[in-house]
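Two proteins were folded this term; both appear here.
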Amino acid sequence: MSNRLPHPNHDRGLEFDLSTIMSRRSLGMFLGAGGAAAALAACTPGGTTPNAGPSTSSAGPAAAASGGAASSPSPALTRAIAECGVEIPQETAGPFPADGSNGPNLLEASGVVRRDIASSFGTGTARAEGVPLTFTLTLLDNANGCVPLAGAAVYAWHCDREGRYSMYDPELTSENYLRGVQEADVNGQATFTTIFPGAYSGRWPHIHFEVFESMNNATAAGQVLAVSQIALTKASCDDVYASPGYETSRRNMGRTTLQSDSVFRNDGGIYQLATMTGSAAAGYTAGLNVTL
């Protein structure tokens, strides 16, 4: 188990990333952040009355939802649309995105489009160990009445149970696990199966993600519509971190709160806090509505 601290520049914020990472991907993130000032302007899909629901969002060009919503949307989708209106806060991608903005670009690698991201692919051979986690992002188009963003794409990545990021940690430079891309279905949903991330010093447990208008954009360095993070619930973290292998995460968790976290502290993570069910014994599921 590694007790290595993260890079000193890790997750210092969007402003820091923009000032230090000048690439076509960071430029796309900068353009997408233009609507961040309106991130807390909650409204209903019609834009007339306040919405107190813990929905999410991100500013950026509306992605085409040519597939349209399903004729009989699921209860989860119906609830997501009802809560839609608050755009997901734009956040830092951190120093370990592997999207071409800071070192390696995994998005152009064959095999990156996959649902199960727990294992490495290509020349990598390792599989991350930990409590199973399945998470789903529901992408909604705020400019068009919160219809699902069918055909949009999500790139998601996170640390392993020891707080290490593949492709960057000295022990994991030849591995690329816990990273992958999925296309949103007709309900605007992209689902990944993985392991529960660890907690490292200075950060609340989280999952990074970028949203693209299409799969082509996601795998060809296209403009990013949103860059944000999922915050995991305290109850689920306390449960999982009592499991073998998460000892370092359990210690780190006791030193950080959502309110003190460098990314989530502005609003306590209320617009990025996942809805979670499950247990450490059976595995967890998580969901987040991402309004763009």
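Next, the second protein.
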Amino acid sequence: MTATDENPLGLLPELLLAGAAAAGLLLGSWLPRRRQWAVGLLCGLACLAAAAAAVTAAPGPATTAFGGAYALDPLTTTARLVLCGATLLVTALSLGPLRGHPRESEHHVLVLLTAVGSLVLAGAQDILLVAAAYLLASIPAYALAGFAKDGPGTEAALKYYVLGALSGAVLLAGTTLLYAATGTTAYPGLAPAGAAPAALLTAGTLGVLGGLLFKAGAVPAHFWVPDTVQGSAPPVAALLTTVPKAGALTALFRLGAVPLAGSTVPWPALLATLAAASMTLGNLAALLQRDVRRLLAYSAVSQVGYLLMPVAVAGRTALAQPAFLYYVAAYALTNLGAFAVVCALPQATTTDHWRGLVRHRPLLAVSLAVCLLGLVGTPPTAVFLGKLEAFTAVFDAGYGWLAVLAAANTVVSLFYYLRWLAPALTPGAAPPSGGEDRLARGTAHTAAAASLALGVAAGPVLALLDGAPAH
């Protein structure tokens, strides 16, 4: 058993973001409309402060807080850094389009609340806390999806809400069944025991997995992803495909590494099958897309498949945790970089609209190339090392077939990324530039450079990601 720490400062990163959200609401109610950007600045500073607090607390041993309900370990620390960095980038992407909007401050606050819920998902070690974090990560996101109050946004929010409410009910039902089977909701007590009814344990675990798979956007709970991403504003689409996904996948990894590690039910085989289905369906569907946001949406579904590979073998090989954590960070940077390029030219909605980008916006074209080739898994980008580590982990755990299938899917993905990239690197007339966002361009350059830097520094970073999760 690890030591238990009841000090609220153990949750300092989460408290900083939650406090900034509350302060942002108050500040937004006093500031005139032309100065609402100050709330965005406050949110950005809160993300930096939360990341600094996570780094400061990182060197300590793996512990739990609040009766074992919250884990403080390498999984939580890495998730904090990834989610705070991703939220900072999303806030930067939102500043330009929202300037002068009557609900500008509310948007920034909703982004922070979504991040807080995702952070708690990543660190939760109690099923009840997982359910509460699911709601906190979901409800603000529903509002963000329909924030524009236009036709596509309303449709996006409705589909996201209906499927999210259904998946939340499934998660709560699973929580109830697990409590009925074991008499506890804490992860260590959920480990299979002789006295617990196997059918209840299995049904309850399936319910919890179903809710988390929806939040991650994995098959079979992926139906909301393309319509919601296409109908939402580009900064919101960037958020939905990155922040809740990272939190939910970390929660899935912790579930596999702690309570499910000794189960006789073949959970690794189930998750490996869902990983294979997600990457295959996502890539095949993306081949048919011309709308760039819809293409990135199916790309996000396929990337969940790759990310589920180390999740499937959590607790069964020491290579799974560093592979997963590194890949999550790499995906977050690269995916946000691709969406930042979309935010920079919001009128260029289809792949054909990007023709001539290299001539008129050469740096933006380079950033797009780095991010799209990065999502494929091209060296020396970070996703390449993430995929390589994930392949190694599943091979080590005896799932070589999954690595072979993932490699084949990677080849398939090259075609639809190149269908977007080829026009962008072809000389021609300038892409539609109405509403061009300079801050989004800077964010795209930053994310692309960070993706390359993370790939180059893979060795030292991977060495920091090891260490058993808290129990």
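The chain has a mean pLDDT of 91. The first helix runs from residue 12 to 30. These notes refer to the second protein only.
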